C-alpha cells in the first residue's frame, strides 16, 4: 500500500526553484491592466515551473498546470506580487496532496513532537494471531532557510521508543483508517537536501509481553481467567468476543515462558485467536473463538474486486489467491485417570477433505484431561 505525503516534494535543496520574471513598464509608469497582466504571466510561469519540479514535465495543455495557475493568480491578486512564489508552490503542493491516487496522511501520538515531522511513507503487514509490524518514515519539513537548524533535524531517539504513534489515513470516498501502536525502535536513516528522515518501527502493545518471563501456577481457573489475570498487568485495552464455555482447569503452569509465549500456547490449545482493532487513541486486543466476532468494516462494509493498477474513488481488492493442501483427516485424543482406571477417555473427530490421502489419523496421548467432555472439546478444536 502506498501513500503520498501532504508535505512538499523537493527538488534538490529546499523545494522548487522559481525565478520571478521582471515586470517592466514605460518610464516607470505602469497601468493597472499591465500590472495585472504581468502578475498573471509571472504566476503562470512560476506555477508551471513549480508543477514541473513536483510532477515532472507536463505536456500542454495541462489541466494540472491550469489549475495551479488559477490558484496562483487568485493568491497573487489578493496578496501582491511578492507572495507569488509561495502561492505557486502552495497551489502545486495542494494538487499533489489531493490529486488522483493521493491520500492525506498525518501522524499523531506522544512518540513525536506535534507538527514537527511530516509523513513520508509506511510499509508493513498485519494478520490474525500475530504481532503486526509497520515501518513508518517521517521527515523534517523541506522549507527554504530552515535546513538543519530546525529542532526537528536533531530529535533524540530514546524518548520516541516505547511511546504511542498513530498514522491517520483519509480514505478515498470518505472515512479514515487509523494504524496505531508503540514505537519499538527508532533510527535516522539519512537526509535528502534539507530534509532529515526518521524511521520508526511500530508494533502492538502485546509486544511488551515478549520482554518478560515468569514461573507461575494457576489453580482452579478457566483459560479465560488466566488470560484476564496475565493481561491485567498491562494497562492497555482488551475486548473478549468469546461464545464458548471453558472448563475449570485444576492446574496450569507457566514454566519459564514469556507472558506472550504462555498465553499464545494456551489460546492455541483452546481455539482462541486474536487481532487488533485500531483507533486514533489506541489499539485494542480482540480475543475471539468464532467467526461471528468479526465486524464489517465501518467505512467499507462491501469491498469490490478490480484489476490491479486501476484507480477508483474507494478502496478495493485487487488480488485473491485460492489454495488447497493436504491435512489430517482424523484426530484422536486420549488420556488415563489413575483414580478411575477403567474410564475410557478416548475421543475421535473425523473430517476428511475431498482430496487424495485424506484419511490419515493423528493420535495424541496424553491429552491432558480427566473429563471426557473436556476431551471432546479439545479434540474438536484440534481437528
From TrEMBL:
Signal peptide: none annotated. NCBIfam families: vgr_GE (TIGR01646), VI_Rhs_Vgr (TIGR03361). Residues 1-11 have a biased composition (Polar residues). Gene3D superfamilies: 2.30.110.50, 4.10.220.110, Baseplate protein-like domains. Residues 1-34 are annotated as: Disordered. InterPro entries: T6SS_RhsGE_Vgr_subset, T6SS_Vgr_RhsGE. This is Type VI secretion system tip protein VgrG. It holds the Pfam family Phage_GPD.
Amino acid at each position: 500500500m502506498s501513500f503520498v505525503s501532504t508535505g512538499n516534494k523537493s527538488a534538490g535543496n529546499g523545494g522548487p526553484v522559481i525565478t520571478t520574471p521582471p515586470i517592466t513598464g514605460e518610464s516607470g509608469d505602469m497601468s493597472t491592466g499591465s500590472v495585472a497582466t504581468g502578475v498573471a504571466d509571472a504566476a503562470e510561469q512560476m506555477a508551471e515551473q513549480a508543477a514541473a519540479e513536483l510532477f515532472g514535465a507536463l505536456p500542454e495543455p495541462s489541466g494540472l498546470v491550469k489549475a495551479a495557475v488559477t490558484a496562483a493568480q487568485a493568491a497573487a491578486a489578493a496578496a501582491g506580487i511578492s507572495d507569488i512564489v509561495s502561492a505557486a508552490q502552495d497551489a502545486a503542493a495542494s494538487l499533489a496532496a489531493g490529486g488522483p491516487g493521493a491520500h492525506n496522511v498525518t501522524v499523531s501520538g506522544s512518540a513525536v513532537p506535534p507538527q514537527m515531522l511530516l509523513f513520508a511513507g509506511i510499509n508493513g503487514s498485519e494478520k490474525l494471531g500475530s504481532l503486526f509490524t509497520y515501518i513508518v518514515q517521517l521527515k523534517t519539513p523541506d522549507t527554504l532557510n530552515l535546513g538543519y537548524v530546525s529542532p526537528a533535524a536533531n530529535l533524540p531517539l530514546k524518548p520516541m521508543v516505547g511511546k504511542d504513534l498513530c498514522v491517520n489515513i483519509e480514505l478515498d470516498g470518505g472515512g479514515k483508517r487509523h494504524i496505531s501502536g508503540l514505537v519499538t525502535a527508532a533510527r535516522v536513516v539519512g537526509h535528502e537536501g534539507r530534509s532529515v528522515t526518521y524511521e520508526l518501527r511500530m508494533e502492538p502493545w502485546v509486544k511488551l509481553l515478549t520482554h518478560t518471563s515468569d514461573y507461575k501456577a494457576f489453580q482452579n481457573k478457566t483459560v479465560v481467567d488466566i488470560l484476564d489475570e496475565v493481561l491485567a498487568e498491562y494497562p492497555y485495552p482488551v475486548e473478549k468476543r468469546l461464545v464458548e464455555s471453558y472448563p475449570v482447569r485444576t492446574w496450569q503452569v507457566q514454566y519459564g515462558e514469556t507472558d506472550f509465549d504462555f498465553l499464545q500456547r494456551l489460546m492455541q490449545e483452546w481455539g482462541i485467536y486474536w487481532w487488533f482493532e485500531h483507533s486514533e487513541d489506541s489499539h485494542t486486543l480482540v480475543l475471539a473463538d468464532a467467526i461471528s466476532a468479526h465486524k464489517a468494516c465501518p467505512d467499507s462494509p462491501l469491498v469490490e474486486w478490480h484489476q490491479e493498477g486501476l484507480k477508483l474513488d474507494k478502496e478495493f481488492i485487487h488480488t485473491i489467491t485460492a489454495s488447497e493442501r493436504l491435512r489430517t483427516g482424523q484426530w484422536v485424543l486420549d488420556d488415563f485417570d489413575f483414580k478411575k482406571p477403567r474410564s475410557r477417555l478416548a475421543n475421535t473427530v473425523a473430517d476428511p477433505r475431498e482430496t487424495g490421502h485424506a484419511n490419515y489419523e493423528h493420535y495424541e496421548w496424553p491429552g491432558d484431561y480427566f473429563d471426557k467432555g473436556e476431551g471432546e472439546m479439545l479434540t474438536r478444536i484440534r481437528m
